Amino acid sequence: MKRSYLIIGVVVLALLAFLPLIIGQYLLNNAVLIVMFVGITVAWNIAAFGGALSLGHAAFFGLGSYTMAILLLDFGVNPWIGMLAGMVVAAGGGLLLSIPLLRLRGPFFTLASIAFAEVIRLVAVYARDFTGGSEGLTIPYAPGWLNMSFSDREPYYYIVLGLTAIAVLVSVWIYYSRVGYQLRASGSDDEATRALGVNTAVLKVVALVISAALTGAFGAFAAQYFFIVDPETNFSLNLYSIQPALNGIIGGAGTVLGPILGAVLMTPIGEYMRGAFAGQQGLNFMIYGVVLVGVVMLMPGGLVSGIEKLRARFRRKRGAGRRTDTTAALNESRTEDRL
Amino acid sequence: MSLLEIENVSKRFGGVQAVDDVSLHLDEGEILGIIGPNGAGKTTLFNLITGTIRSDTGKISLAGADITTTSPTKRARAGIGRTFQVVRPFLRMTVAENVMVPVLVHTHKVSEARNKAVALLEELGIGKLADLDVSQLTLAQRKRIEVARALATEPKVLLLDEVLAGLNNREVLDVLPFVNQVRARGISIIMIEHLVKALTSVSDRIIVLDQGTLIAQGKSDDVLKDPAVIKAYIGEEDNVEG
Prior knowledge:
The structure holds two protein chains of two kinds.
Chain A: H1 2-17, H2 19-22, H3 25-49, H4 57-75, H5 79-103, H6 106-126, H7 128-131, E1 137-138, H8 154-175, H9 178-188, H10 190-194, H11 200-226, E2 228-229, H12 231-234, H13 237-251, H14 258-276, H15 283-298, H16 303-318, H17 325-338
Antiparallel strand pairs in A: 1-2
Chain B: E1 4-13, E2 16-26, E3 31-35, H1 42-50, E4 57-62, E5 65-66, H2 72-78, E6 80-82, H3 95-106, H4 110-123, H5 139-151, E7 157-161, H6 169-184, E8 188-192, H7 196-202, E9 205-210, E10 213-218, H8 220-225, H9 227-234, H10 237-241
Parallel strand pairs in B: 3-8, 3-9, 6-7, 7-8
Antiparallel strand pairs in B: 1-2, 1-4, 4-5, 9-10
Helix pairs in contact in B: 3-4, 3-5, 5-6
């Protein structure tokens, strides 16, 4: 299972590496955004393995952006090092959000996470000396790999592809690790997991910190890609808290493939509608909302579980004569129970 | 010295005295049955033993060590395993993965933990369920997975909270030998059960709780004849007449 993931991953990555040769600059911008949102969603989902549905990830994204930008502008620190520093600061933010995570359950944690991101955004607005207030900071244009700054979009595309590949790798690795099994158990039933001797508090904190650090890396990348860092954009509740959560939930939160599918599907839809309904303000959000409600009602576990159910139904129809191993074992054991 | 000692433990929820000054002990290799009407405080007593809730007063010790204020996780590691009255399988995970969760506490390698989990399932005669998703299981199967999962923590004491509830007669006969199988592994058991007949057939000793207090204990035949127990279950004689 794990090995087949690796092979598929390498093939997909190789195909994606050729993408810039085929599509133009405008479409490449879309590709950068899609790949970035896949990465952010996958990072968000690592916390969701343990059942934490955060709407505060914009805080980690913004912390990554600002850390890199401030280090570059005020201290002349290289952006690559700034990105690492951004991950560390975002991880610190994750540690801070762990306090409500360990005390509040379900929706109450989700609400606290919104407040957390909002507080950090306001700090960015009011700490004018460092952050430039509401106007934000502008990243100087100084092309070159050393400065993570380019005139074309191709290098950005490869950087974000690399970051996302790392995020997916980390996510798969955690999912199938010791931590992952216990984390998923805790996400399903925390009390029952603790009753088995698992220290779930440590696991949940570790997952949130890793999730935050990865999100911070994308924040630093975005600062270089857009050349500007400001509180409204980089701490945007809509873009970097709600969007990854929606992508994850639509695809299937807590699964490996779900967030990837969700982000690949929803990012272009969002981008397209923003352009198509530019005249009717808010209509794009309405349509988006209808899609969300539809998916959640038709497939409560997200696209991944919906597809699995369809496949199971298909298999049952096809295998009416010869049963698959699973159903055979199941039926056998059921009969045994009856005897 | 007993394996598990509970001395004068009480718990109050607002106006309800859920457990009132209960003392009991469990010896090594013993099966202790707990019966009592609904709301007698049986599950609360289990929660006090596992540490899910803290007792207001009293002392709980396991193998001589005081665990009264220890966290549930540490108590589980010290050797207290439990099942829940309503089965609580880990969803979207296979049976083997469910059992792997406790195994991974001590076994750090995932492949090794998987082998151990499958081996345990096979020992218990449910090896062929290993790769099924828990959502595909019948209630009787889920109950056994719940026991298997608790066993995987390698407990000294296993608390079984109504493992037979919700099963039909045939399924009861199927799960009941499971309890003796568990004892054969050298594990002491406290079990809560509403099916008095099933409980007495496997227990060495029985205690009866009513409204939070322990009203009788001893061999099952003596306990069931105790006037206080009869009163708790069917009311006083003159009430019946009136």
